[in-house]
């Protein structure tokens, strides 16, 4: 009985080591999607990622010789002109007899295989903190394929974090989100932060949480200026009404109307 308890404690320690925070310098940023133009400037969303070697090094450091990876090629995906990811693999990662699986995509076999490997690693907690990162919009020098950021995305994100904090995610919640959707979709499921990022950012008129500032990104001038970050809350702040003779401009806070609600990407 004691031996079994010791074995359980030892395994729990191994899982904790696998899911430990990443070391400094291994998180990189890449542009996700096309840049958008606002007021003569271009902005693009950057997402955080780690190389496959980072996952391999964590496995070799914590469970050397005790892990195994199997890759299964999946049917070719139909792609369009905006999505070059047409290859996919299913990764089957086994650690000390425990098996976790996930699927990765890419524009070639190598990219798809490494994506699947990293996603399977997340099932064991490796690099799970990347799922808690907020959206990171950075100004770029154009809207071309090889546009470059005018500021280091890591520095831009660090500056944003310095302006406000958010509740930490639990490992249980990360695992739940990993079972629900891809990393790109998880940003919408993250718990809403409370308190404004800056003195000029309003709070949600309905739940009091933080809001997305859509003023730069929206294409429809009648769309809300601000929208609550919590997907379960539909609080918005509409643009100030244009003043007419004998009246003053009035800003309205209301619930989003489905006919006018914008799906623009927030900054």
Q: How would you describe this protein?
A:
The protein has about 270 residues and is of the alpha+beta class. The chain contains six helices and eleven strands. It has helices spanning about 1-20, 50-60, 110-120, 155-165, 170-180, 185, and strands at about 30, 35-40, 40-50, 65-75, 85-95, 100-105, 135-140, 210-215, 225-230, 235, 255. Strands 1, 2, 3 and 7 form a four-stranded antiparallel β-sheet that branches. The chain has a four-stranded antiparallel β-sheet with strand order 8-9-10-11, with no helix packed on it. Strand 5 and strand 6 form a beta hairpin. The longest helix has 17 residues, at about 1-20. It is globular and about 65 Å long.
Helix and strand composition category: alpha+beta
Radius of gyration equals 22 Å
Helix content: 25-40%
Described by strand count, sense and barrel closure, the largest sheet is: 4 strands, antiparallel
Shape: globular
Q: Could you report the average pLDDT, rounded to the nearest whole number? A: 76
Beta-strand content: 15-25%
Element pattern in H and E: HEEEHEEEHEHHHEEEE
Q: How far from one another are the termini?
A: 55 Å
**Uncertain stretches of 5 or more adjacent residues:** 1-5, 165-199, 247-267
Number of strands: 11
Question: Total helix count?
Answer: 6
Describe the SSE topology.
Layout: H1 2-18, E1 28-31, E2 36-38, E3 41-49, H2 52-62, E4 67-73, E5 87-95, E6 98-106, H3 109-122, E7 136-140, H4 153-163, H5 171-180, H6 183-186, E8 211-213, E9 226-228, E10 235-237, E11 253-255
């Amino acid at each position: 009985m004691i031996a079994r308890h010791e074995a359980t404690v030892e395994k729990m320690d191994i899982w904790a080591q696998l899911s430990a925070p990443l070391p400094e310098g291994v998180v990189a940023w890449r542009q996700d999607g096309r840049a958008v133009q606002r007021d003569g400037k271009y902005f693009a969303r950057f997402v955080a990622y780690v190389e496959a070697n980072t996952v391999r090094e964590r496995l070799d450091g914590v469970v050397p010789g005790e892990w195994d990876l199997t890759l299964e090629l999946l049917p070719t995906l139909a792609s369009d002109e905006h999505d070059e990811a047409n290859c996919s693999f299913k990764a089957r990662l086994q650690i000390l007899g425990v098996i976790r699986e996930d699927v990765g995509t890419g524009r070639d076999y190598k990219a798809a295989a490494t994506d699947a490997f990293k996603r399977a690693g997340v099932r064991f907690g490796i690099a799970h903190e990347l799922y808690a990162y907020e959206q990171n919009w950075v100004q770029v020098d154009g809207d071309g394929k090889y546009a470059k950021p005018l500021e280091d995305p890591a520095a831009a994100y660090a500056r944003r974090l310095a302006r406000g904090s958010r509740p930490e995610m639990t490992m249980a919640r990360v695992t739940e989100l990993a079972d629900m959707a891809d990393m790109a979709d998880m940003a919408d499921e993250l718990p809403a932060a409370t308190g404004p990022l800056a003195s000029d950012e309003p709070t949600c008129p309905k739940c009091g949480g933080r809001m997305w500032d859509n003023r730069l990104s929206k294409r429809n001038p009648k769309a809300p200026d601000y929208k609550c970050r919590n997907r379960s809350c539909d609080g918005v702040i509409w643009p100030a009404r244009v003043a007419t003779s004998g009246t003053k401009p009035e800003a309205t806070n209301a619930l989003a109307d489905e006919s006018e609600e914008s799906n623009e990407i927030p900054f």
